[in-house]
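User: My instructor asked us to take a sequence, write out its structure as tokens, and then describe one feature of it. I'm not sure where to start. Here is the sequence I was given:
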Amino acid sequence: MDGLISLRRQPYKMYLQTHSGNPQQKSICLSHNAVNMADTKVSHGLAATGVGTIDCARHNMKLPNGVGDLQKGKRYTNMDFLFFSTLHGRCIDILNISYDITCQWHKNLWQKMLTMPLNLHLNHLETFVRFFIPKFRLPTHILTCQTDFSFNFSKNIGHTNGEAPKHGWSNINPVASSTKEMGPGSQRDTLNDHFGDWNWKKVVGLGATLLHKMIEAKGEQKVNQTAFQELSEALAPETTEAWKVEIKSWEENPNDPLVANPFEAKLEVSELQQGTDVSMHADVSPSIFIASGIDLENEQQCLKVDIGKQGLHATDTQMAAIQRLQNSLQRKIDAWKRIQTLYNPEVQLLESTVDSPLCHTSDIITPEDTNLWLPSALCSKSMAPNG
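Assistant: Let's start with the prediction itself. The structure tokens for your sequence are:
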């Protein structure tokens, strides 16, 4: 077994050189800086700008041949090669893949696999493959992603949250101050030592960790089982049986676009089947658009509450945290408003009419105070008497 960073660096470097000119495909979901800004990362004069890893999401361990240098941020080309390298030589029947940009990354994965050496190819047609987005990051995605890539909607997953790959960075980040000045050989040896130590500590503590989780799960099982039975008894048997059939079909064919996702809005599924769908966006239906807007309104209110808790003498750390939340919310609003122009084009005219008399160069509208103009607000605006 090779080291954690593959000792055979030549195939990796050759693959990157061959495909370095491939443009980074932009995300069609909400703005993901890891994807959309990968080509803008400053790399002049640097052999590497960072490190990418492939981890076991269940046990939070670094996998063999799953660590490699990144030359321009988190580009698909690097992560594709690392992903297939760590699967090399493994006999896998079920493969659950968790990645914070899975919604975009998985689309051309098997086509890109064909460009790699034959020994890295995976027989995905005979492997049950499912794609997920880590639970903590899932709410930042559009509603379609939240139903298609959720851990909560798949069986045999348990309480895996998919965030394990992120947990290890707090342990390894301080090493960067040393490795950034090392040569390639010393850097690989140092990272191998630290990642090996991380894995060893995980193995040593695995017994106590599993025991704690088993005790916790045993108590939670009774609570959730009781709640589920009470809910089932309140529903008509014919309804629950129909749901079971739909869910079983989707669980067995999670990547088949012809199998309807039972967790999506039923009205739109029937409209698609009848050919009467009125969606103006390929991935964002009317209900998803409205639901996303309601979620944004909720985020606005939560942010206002957080700002109100700061008091009159907020520290620099507190103000920086609020600024990060505002920046994140602003990006989500900008992405949502681009879709809004398709479903509610009159909003552009309404905003110019409402804002222009009061618009001044000194006026700054914060994201938590931005008017989203949801359909309900448009209706009340149109019914309001003209002043």
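For the description part of your assignment, you could build on this observation: The chain has a mean pLDDT of 81. Try explaining in your own words what that tells you about the chain.
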